[in-house]
Write a structure and sequence with these properties.
The complex is a heterodimer of chains A (155) and B (128). Chain A is α+β, with helices and mostly antiparallel strands. Chain A contains three helices and eight strands, in the order αββββααββββ. In chain A, a hairpin with a 1-residue loop joins strand 3 and strand 4. The radius of gyration of chain A is 14 Å and the shape is globular. Chain B has 128 residues and is of the alpha/beta class. The chains are: A alpha+beta (155), B alpha/beta (128). The interface between A and B is medium-sized, with 22 and 17 residues.
């Protein structure tokens, strides 16, 4: 996978969470994921088509997403509810938007679908391309989350 | 510049969370009179029944999207002069040209801070 694709989503994730939630996530070393396990308690996934095709998932631990969404809404949320799932969809959409803008500046025009959200312990992520995906692990002060990227260039 | 923090703002987005996020940002700046609508159709009903001073609308919405709402607002002489700030997930040039053609006051790309949102609002009010 082209490292520029991964970097676009890494930068997009940091930008969205810093701007909307005042949370500065620290990225770890990317690695290859071979299973379908999401790695988090609530995940947003969005399909991409165009010069880059595939899908992007953000999978948050409960503690991390409770803090992120509480900061976004200006009110304390203590459990994964409809607001959390709604916000994960919106965060996924925004990360995709920022990343697509970066990809566009690199000459890759990409469009995205509507994000879907899955919640629950031990849920799985099904990427449209199948096969292994790249995981970028992040740490926040309140817990971890991962960005899970599966995509190929088509041009 | 003196901005009336009591002006009536209508926030339109199909995602309730995003409406809450925008309301939270507006409150951080000091705005307090904020109404919400989940789509263009219900927004028009509110615009007809209350004296809204400023519209902040998402672009992508079911039933009536932000551009269609903008056209409806600009085509109705009772509400056509209300400032209209469009919120988009991406700054697609073609979309911006379309919105400008239809009379959008300005646009803002997600994600954004309370400061950037307020700069957009102040900029629009200053041009009134």
């Amino acid at each position: 996978m082209d490292v520029r694709f991964v970097n676009s989503f890494l930068e997009g994730t940091i930008s969205v969470l810093e701007t909307m939630a005042h949370v500065t996530p620290k990225p770890g070393n990317p690695y290859l994921k071979k299973s379908r396990a999401a790695g988090g308690d609530v995940s947003g996934i969005i399909g991409l088509t165009g010069a880059v095709t595939g899908s992007l998932a953000l999978s948050f631990s409960e503690k991390a997403i409770l803090k992120i969404v509480s900061n976004m809404l200006g009110e304390e949320i203590t459990e994964i509810n409809d607001d959390i799932e709604d916000a994960v969809g919106e965060i996924t959409n925004m990360v995709s938007g920022v990343a697509r803008k970066k990809l566009e500046s690199l000459g890759f025009n990409v469009t995205s679908a509507i994000p879907t959200v899955v919640a629950g312990k031990n849920h799985t992520i099904h990427h449209v391309l199948g096969g292994p995906s790249i995981i970028i692990p992040f740490e926040t002060e309140d817990g971890p989350f991962v960005v899970d990227v599966s995509m190929i260039g088509t041009e | 510049m003196d901005i009336d923090l009591n002006m009536k703002i209508l926030v339109i987005d199909d995602f309730s969370t995003m409406r809450k996020v925008i309301k939270n940002l507006l409150k951080q700046v000091g705005y307090s009179d904020i109404s919400e609508a989940q789509d263009g159709t219900s927004a028009l009903q509110i615009l007809k029944s209350r004296n809204i001073d400023f519209i902040i609308s998402d672009w992508n919405m079911p039933n009536m999207n932000g551009l269609e709402l903008l056209k409806a607002v600009r085509g109705d002489s009772e509400i056509s002069s209300i400032p209209f700030l469009m919120v988009t997930a991406e700054a697609l040039k073609d979309n911006i040209v379309l919105a400008v053609k239809e009379g959008v006051s300005n646009y803002i790309v997600k994600p954004f801070t309370a400061e950037v949102l307020n700069e957009k609002i102040e900029g629009i009010i200053a041009k009134q």
